[in-house]
# Entry
Amino acid sequence: MPIDIISLGKKINRCRKNLALELSDVSEKVGISIERLDEIERGHIEPTGDEILIFADFYKQDYKYFISNEKLSATEQIEVLYRKFGDDFSKEDRWALQEFIYLCENEQEILNYLEYENVNFSAPKYPNVYKSQGAETAEKLRQFLGYKNDELYSDLFSEFRKIGLHIFRRRLCNSKVSGLFIKHPNAGKCILVNYDEDTYRQNFTLSHEVCHALLDDEFEFSVSFKNDNDYREIRANNFASSFLIPPSFIEKLRAVTWNEELIVDVANQLKVNVQTLLIALKSNNCIGKSQYERFMVLKIPRKQKEDFELKGVSPTIIESKKTLLEKGLSTYYVRNCHEAYKNGHISSGRLAENLLVDESELTSILDLFKLKLDYEY
# Structure
């Protein structure tokens, strides 16, 4: 079947514009002249097979997307997202989002290879949007995951991955963006959490985006900005608060005599910021307005907030691990990619691509996770 060069050119043009790149930027990176790139994007000439692979690698796309009219891509969704929120995403953030989508696609492919089966949680469907639906859904999900009434989570990211969500953290330049949810046409429900936020805020953001994934999946995407008072955002906040601070846990606190030290201790136990705890306590009539206002000035130092992914990591490699995390390379993702490589599903070259590095860097990356290439076993 011949390639539709008009369609192909439009797809390449769309990928470039989504990343806010000029032809000169792409030419410098991929080694194809500006004139030839322009002709390809206009659909005047057909790129070579090697050039299609270059575009696929550069734009983090499956090459089949470019040559097939049937292949779906999240690029179209991203294009709509940028039309709506374009000014809120810098060029660096657009790269981060493109790599996030790429990681989600890779993860789905890897999980298919590994025959990983998710548990199927059927979220309730509501005809209208109300704040209370967040708490109702959080309670149903907690029960589904086997939590006891006041039981707290240990590894929030792992818990939500059980229900088939692709979850990644990336550092975004725009600190107003807490996270986003995208319903990928192939990978499914994908969540990005801004790694620039402190760990406890990330926990809340993740839970917030999970609500969007469960209750707002009729939309192709949602972007969560801080201090957004949209009804769906309020419902998602209610879900996050109720999942992280279950009502049965709050009930145990009704007779407590609160002081500053205890507020901080309980917030740390729950792995939430003080403000999140205070809002829950006040809305459940566990504290009054004066206590709420007095305790609102309390802060937990960022360095005291434990990141589950870095727990027990040697001080000599913790900064390297943080660098990988801010690029989206979680232990869960890296280990699954390596497992697929070890079982012969992907090559070492493909493993390197999945981990966003050159093959020459692969060994040093794997060392951080105590993994090795086959010839080193």
Summary: The chain has a mean pLDDT of 91.
